[in-house]
Amino acid sequence: MLFIHPGLPPSTEENLIPSREAIGAMSRYNRQLHEAGVLLDVNGLHSPNEAVRISFPGGKPQVVDGPFAETKELVGGYWIIDVKSKAEAIEWAKRCPIDAEGPMIEVRQIFEISDFPPELREAVWLG
Amino acid sequence: VTPANAARAAIEAVWRIESPRLIAALARMVRDVGLAEELAQDAFVAALEQWPADGVPDRPGAWLMQAAKRRAIDQLRRAERLRRKQEVVGRDAEAAEELAAADFEAALTEEIGDSLLRLVFTACHPVLAPEARVALTLRILCGLTTEEIARAFLVPVATMAQRIVRAKRTLAEARVAFEVPAGPDLAPRLGAVLAMVYLVFNDGGRARFRRMQPRGSNSVPSPRPRASTLRCLYISASVTREVRAVAAHEAPSQPANGIRTATFATVGDDRSCGSGRSEYHLSDRNV
Fold first, then answer.
1. pLDDT tens digit string along A1-14?
2. Could you say which of B10, B234, B238 has the minimum Cβ distance to residue A87?
3. ipTM of the assembly?
4. Using CB atoms, which residue from A39, A82, A91 is nearest to B13?
5. Which of A11, A31, B208, B285 is 20 to 30 Å from the Cα of B202, by its Cα?
């Protein structure tokens, strides 16, 4: 799974819709992923200003509306790709058409059934 | 992880990403799928020697293409010298001409379509036995190793290596043209391609199913067996869409049978592979 962190300041309202060129470049990149047979899912996310966070202090859900102060770790979008190795995920991430200082891509591995110890798999299956 | 291992992993990743397009572009130039694969492999070996020391280049695909191109030109010059001596027909001279004029950047950035589609039709040529077509497609188009293909077919690696070598030799000896057939040739050739898509779909699913079987309570499925199969399915589905476009254009009266097969594979692609849980849908299908 590749997360993109846009690295924008919290109040940035403008420029959330990228330029035609940037959209075209990203679409070409996504098509490359698709045609290589590795892309499972891709999405861009709405502004973090519209995000809502639900935490569970004392086991009770508590809803807090955005915007939030810290933005470094905010996710702007993600790709789910199915590749053979971490190196291949990194290689794809390096090809992402970004030519600015701020944005960053984080590569994370999705937890799968086989990553659970055998004795816990039944719980995963049956709940 | 040592730096050498990290470099090797990076190079293998580049290979998986670049090899089908690289082989397709080379095959278009040298008109020989087996030779194209060898040239691509040679470039890969050069990368294994050079990149750990110099670092992975900024545009690894272009680097591999340049390296392969140099070898292709050497090869064609040697063939040309041989031809002058032996007065063999001018297939290679024609290829050399095209190679000199070829726009390698364009060949590399070309989207799936022409070269890859030609590659599929060549790998699925009726001069080959059906299982040889599947093996060759998995090898050349989907970038699977001979070991992985042997495992999927449940045959020894040496047997599969032989089958692939023979298939490449057969294509070269039959002088199979590297092209998408047109006119009356299209229907039977299209049938062969669609049959391959179907076999990849089913063999891939079955091989995966086998790996999912518990072999006693302590058995752990081999880690991440899915990537290769999914990759094949997606490439097959992409190719199927291309094939259907060609079919609709070239042979509107094509019997629906082949197209139904294609639809099956495409639907399977959309439904079964669209989520991270795809393996279970696929397994069910093959029980």
1. 898 887 766 555 55
2. B10
3. 0.72
4. A91
5. A31
